[in-house]
Automatic annotation (TrEMBL):
It comes from Methanolapillus ohkumae. It holds the Pfam family HHH. This is Adenine DNA glycosylase. One of its GO terms (biological process) is base-excision repair. Its EC number is 3.2.2.31. Keywords: 4Fe-4S, DNA damage, DNA repair, Glycosidase, Hydrolase, Iron, Iron-sulfur, Metal-binding. Belongs to the Nth/MutY family.
């Protein structure tokens, strides 16, 4: 079966690959981004380049910058990083995601110190042999740190080249062709600047949505622009997310400390967590499960939702309080290898963003409960005060002012004594 060819629309006849590279470099000299790991005019530090490139994998620049500053402050040299405890590295990494990167970063630092005296190898082939360094990172370090003409292909580069050459097929089909074009476009001089230029163009001008074509130095050469296909290229088929759900167990001892254990495999390997399990499901509810040990479990009616690259996860929180010497619990503890930790000490343990959500949800529920109790207590006090006021009103006799009644002045009537003769006469007449 013949191999399917990729349909591409070449840049305009007047433009050559070198013309495009030259335009990109001229644009970069004016509009290149100011980034903490990139100092214009200074010789790049391979250690700084390497740390930034590992952090930038699957993560945006704006998210990385504050983590980069904290990391370099704590581990300013590769020797200090190599000597550090992995838990210290994970603690600084928490929240950045993809924790395998941090573990490989630490392992790679130890290898560079032990095998290369703390100096990164300069060739692409040697870089590929180091832990956590694949083709993309090897090309990035080789190009950005040592100015070698190694083509770097990330999401920004894919977008620029696929639009430039109007590649309309699905992304998986055109990746080999994009890599080929990227190598052709790479100049022999100023390789580091060119790599930064094409990545910056994709990040600031040739963006996934609402690209600013009128500001692009390659607009007159762009096949997608000429065909009005910029918004449709590259053609990316979204990954179908798998839905998983299950219980998470919040276990407290009699003093209020919480049981945590360390994960030893998978994406969250090396991080501390509350015991949990999840299975693929079609419903947003926990599948049937058995509790880890017999206890008075309470369903909190709280759920945590978290999205990984390809997984939509829902965890439902169940709480219990247990005696550390309970036989069933001891069997569970032996299997999981965890221990009870005071909640105030959570800050000293590296947790994933998922587990931080659990902590936040639990603390939030506790604060609301405390606030509710305070409000109830306040209301009770108010009612007591009202009752007291009512009693006061009942016991206090109102002061009634007696009205001043003035005694009327009674004038003495002057009564004239009748003449006896007349009275007798009147009686006799009657």
């Amino acid at each position: 079966m013949a191999k399917k060819s990729i349909s591409t629309s070449s840049v305009s006849d007047s433009a050559s690959v070198l013309d495009i590279s030259s335009k990109l470099l001229s644009w970069y000299d004016v509009y290149g981004r100011d980034l903490p790991w990139r100092v214009v005019g200074a010789h790049p530090n391979p250690y700084v380049v390497w740390v930034s490139e590992i952090m930038l994998q699957q993560t945006t620049v704006q998210t990385v910058i504050p983590y980069f500053y904290k990391f370099m402050e704590r581990f300013p040299t590769i020797e200090i990083l190599a000597d550090a405890d992995i838990e210290d590295v994970l603690l600084l990494w928490q929240g950045l995601g993809y924790y395998t990167r941090a573990k490989k970063l630490h392992e790679c630092a130890q290898r560079v110190v032990s095998d290369f005296g703390g100096k990164f190898p300069k060739t692409y082939a040697e870089l590929l042999k180091l832990p956590g360094i694949g083709p993309y990172t090897a090309a990035s370090i080789s190009s950005l740190a040592f100015d070698k003409p190694e083509a770097v292909v990330d999401g920004n580069v894919i977008r620029v080249i696929s639009r430039l050459y109007s590649m309309t097929e699905e992304l998986d089909q055109i990746k080999p062709e994009i890599s080929k074009r990227a190598r052709q476009m790479m100049p022999q001089r100023r390789a580091a600047d060119y790599t930064s230029a094409i990545m910056d163009l994709g990040a600031t001008v040739c963006t996934p949505k609402n690209p600013v074509c009128e500001s692009c130095p390659l607009q007159s050469d762009c096949g997608a622009k000429q065909k009005n296909l910029v918004g449709e290229i590259p053609k990316i088929v979204p990954l179908k997310k798998v839905q998983k759900s299950g219980p998470l167990f919040w276990i407290e001892n009699e003093s209020g400390s919480v049981y945590i254990c360390k994960r030893h495999e998978g994406l969250l390997s090396g991080l501390w967590e509350f015991p949990w399990m999840a299975e693929e499901t079609t419903k947003d509810m926990p599948p049937a499960f058995n509790f880890p040990f017999e206890s008075d479990w309470i369903f909190t009616k709280k759920s945590i939702r978290h999205t990984f690259t390809h997984i939509q996860l829902s965890l439902f929180i169940y709480r219990t309080k247990t005696n550390e010497q309970d036989p069933d619990f001891l069997v569970f503890q032996k299997k999981t290898g965890g221990s009870f930790v005071p909640q105030n000490d959570f800050k000293d343990y590296p947790f994933s963003t998922l587990m931080k959500k659990v902590i936040h949800e639990t603390e939030d529920a506790k604060n609301k409960k405390m606030a509710s109790k305070k409000t109830e207590f306040k209301d009770m006090n108010l009612k007591k005060t009202e009752f007291k006021d009512m009693n006061l009103k009942k016991t206090e006799k109102p002061k009634i002012e007696k009205p001043k009644i003035e005694k009327p002045k009674i004038e003495k009537l002057k009564i004239e004594k009748p003449k006896t003769e007349k009275i007798i006469k009147q009686i006799s007449d009657f």
